[in-house]
Amino acid sequence: MDTRPLPRVIAAFALLLAAGLASAQAQPQPQQPPGQVEGAKPSGAKVSQPAEPEVHENLLSVNFPGGSVADYVKYLKSSASFPVNVVLSPAARDVDLAPIELESVDVQTAIESIAAATDQDRGSWHIERIGPEVQYRTLPSGTMVPMLPSSQPAFKVELLAAPPASQSNRASRPGGQLFPSVPDSRPMVSVNSVRDLLKDPASPSNSAGVTPQTLLSAVEAALQMTMQENEAAPDVKFHPEASLLIVRGDASQQGAVKSVLDQLRQDAASRNAAQDSRKQDAIREIQMKAAMDEARTQRRAAEDRLAAAVERMNRVRKLQESGTAAAEELDAATAEFQKARTERDLAMLKEEQQGQVAKVMAGRADSWIALLINTKSLSPADFDRFDKAIQTIIFSGQDHFGGHFPAADRSNIRVWTDDQMATRLDQLAKEFGCDSYRDFPSDPPAAASIPSAPAPAPAVQPK
């Protein structure tokens, strides 16, 4: 057999095979997704697909009740199922945080929420990720998911007194984020009920309020003080039927409106309290006047009974002296006289006390004195003229008198008055030839103006 052509056949076959391999290599190959295992069936192959693997993200939920930044970091470390690495600057550790509630967030979001939970006046927060960047892979369905890094990231949290201008637009991922302390300029709407502040002509109990025009004027004046140059004016509307003040503005403007409403409420409360106090004073004055009138009526009735008892006692004494009345009748008349005198004295004391209480309520009791005028030397006609003169003085200056008490037997007159009127009454008493005594001396000459025993007393005229 001739075998010489065989090498040519083999060479031709080898050339053909090489050309086919080169053509296959020249065709574009589909790109493997990140993490795709070599040799796996393409997604278009008709084979049973396993379920997509669970995404192992480092997520956590936060329910922080409030406290310092250091407390919050400690809470995150204890709540997370993975390490949480945070480096706090000394200025940031003790800053107070409001309560924070988050659901299924990554650790960076949980840490960046520090800036939103602090007082804006504290300064500017700079929160920076200093660990490895997050890598992502594509699932067969095309979903991008983060891959667990070989190590956990760390975060740096700083509180800056004043943020540098060059950092005001720093990107948040991965280089860090600057949270400037600026007022919230976002417009918001507040609806305020002002019914309790408005004056209601139909309701006397709410007469201390203001008119809607006054309310709107005060609100607009406060808003003018808060507005900056070229700043849009807030919208203020008043709904009269519902008594609602509706304001659309930023946080500072809303705060100004709230301050005005709070101050108006304080003023209204003060005016209402003053009105209530005046009402109570008027009620007490009416009650005191009624008590004074009652005490005066009781005193006059007691004086009438005493005058009748004195008249009967004198009549029985004359009958006994003429032999037509028994001693027992005189004893009974004397006992009746003593009882009537005691009742009269108690009624006078009660009236005096009521007068003094009235002056205490009026705030003038510290300057009042008691004046006792001895009128025993006056005839009945002179006594009447003297008493009418006293009443004329009392009528001309009622605020200076607390009580006027003429005795039933016309032997004296007691007056509660101040020092100025007491001087006038002293002069009047001298004009009538009477003596006057102040502050109820312990033993004034006219103290026993009504006889304590019937025998030495002369007959007296009834009032």
Secondary-structure topology with pairs:
Blueprint: H1 6-26, E1 59-64, E2 67-68, H2 69-79, E3 85-88, H3 90-93, E4 96-97, E5 100-106, H4 107-112, E6 124-129, E7 135-138, E8 144-147, E9 154-160, E10 177-179, E11 188-193, H5 212-226, E12 235-239, E13 244-249, H6 251-321, H7 327-361, E14 368-374, H8 380-396, E15 401-406, E16 412-418, H9 419-431, E17 435-438
Parallel strand pairs: 3-9
Antiparallel strand pairs: 1-5, 2-4, 6-9, 6-10, 7-8, 11-13, 12-13, 14-16, 14-17, 15-16
Helix pairs in contact: 5-6, 6-7, 8-9
Describe this structure in a few short sentences:
This protein is an alpha+beta fold and 463 residues long. It is 42% helix and 19% strand.
Written description of the protein model:
With 463 residues, the chain is an alpha+beta fold. Among the domains are: 59-179; 188-276; 366-463, Alpha-Beta Plaits (2-Layer Sandwich). Helix content is 42%, strand content 19%. A four-stranded mixed β-sheet has the order 3-9-6-10. A hairpin with a 4-residue loop joins strand 12 and strand 13. The chain starts with 5 loop residues before the first helix and ends in a 25-residue tail after the last strand.
